[in-house]
Amino acid sequence: MNDTAEPLPPDELGDRVSEVFDLIGALYRRGLRKLEQGEQAEGVSVGVRSVLVLLRRYGAMTVPQMGRIMALTRQFVQRMVNDAVAGGWAEITPNPAHQRSSLIRITSEGETVIDTILAREHALNRQVGGDLTDAELRACTRVLKEMLRTFDHVDVD
């Protein structure tokens, strides 16, 4: 194992990145299971939660815009939007910039439910151990962004 600050040679980099992907997969699956344990309280699926987070963070958006950000198909995002609308957490409004692609907005009920969900997630995330430092989390974020950038060209539709 190379414990220096030097960039890794390609073969070693490939092995280490594979290790990170394996960990991300396990973390994602376990995290979803844990989040879905609280689903009954809010009635919001993980997919709808993602839509509400985007709308809360960026304001009104179109389904194609959300799909690009989440790297998910428009069809899947549309189903999640439909569920959010049916729950009263989002609404569909005309888009002055594009007649065929409506804007999706979060409702006040949606803001309340996503606040509840995010507070629960924050409480869970506070329990992460390991005495992690800001520098370690910045490095982790940098690595994950580089890994994600590798797949920027992948079309999700």
TrEMBL record:
<dbReference type="Pfam" id="PF12802">
    <property type="entry name" value="MarR_2"/>
</dbReference>
<dbReference type="InterPro" id="IPR036390">
    <property type="entry name" value="WH_DNA-bd_sf"/>
</dbReference>
<dbReference type="InterPro" id="IPR039422">
    <property type="entry name" value="MarR/SlyA-like"/>
</dbReference>
<dbReference type="InterPro" id="IPR000835">
    <property type="entry name" value="HTH_MarR-typ"/>
</dbReference>
<dbReference type="GO" id="GO:0003700">
    <property type="term" value="F:DNA-binding transcription factor activity"/>
</dbReference>
<protein>
    <submittedName>
        <fullName>MarR family winged helix-turn-helix transcriptional regulator</fullName>
    </submittedName>
</protein>
<feature type="domain" description="HTH marR-type">
    <location>
        <begin position="17"/>
        <end position="149"/>
    </location>
</feature>
<dbReference type="GO" id="GO:0006950">
    <property type="term" value="P:response to stress"/>
</dbReference>
<dbReference type="InterPro" id="IPR036388">
    <property type="entry name" value="WH-like_DNA-bd_sf"/>
</dbReference>
